[in-house]
Amino acid sequence: MARGAEPAGERRRCGSVVAYFTSAKFLLYLGHALSTWGDRMWHFAVSVFLVELYGNSLLLTAVYGLVVAGSVLLLGAIIGDWVDKNSRLKVAQTSLVVQNASVILCGIILMVIFLFKMQLLTLYHGWLLTMCYILVITIANIANLASTATAITIQRDWIVVIAGEDRSKLADMNATIRRIDQLTNILAPVAVGQIMTFGSPMIGCGFISGWNLMSMCVEYLLLWKVYQKTPTLALKSAKVEESELKQLNVKTESDVKPAEGVQLIVEKDVTGFEPQQEKEISCGARIAEPFITFRDGWVAYYNQPVFLAGMGLAFLYMTVLGFDCITTGYAYTQGLSGSVLSLLMGASAVTGIMGTVAFTWLRRKCGLVRTGLISGVAQFACLVLCAVSVFMPGSPMDLTVSPFADISARLFESEPLPAIASPEDKPEVFFATGMPNLLNGSTTPANSDPEMSPEPVPLLSVSLLFAGVIAARVGLWSFDLTVTQLLQENVVESERGIINGVQNSMNYLLDLLHFIMVILAPNPEAFGLLVLISVSFVAMGHIMYFRFAQKTLGKQLFSCRTPDPKVSDSSPTGNTSTV
Question: What is the mean pLDDT of residues 40-63?
Answer without folding.
Answer: 76
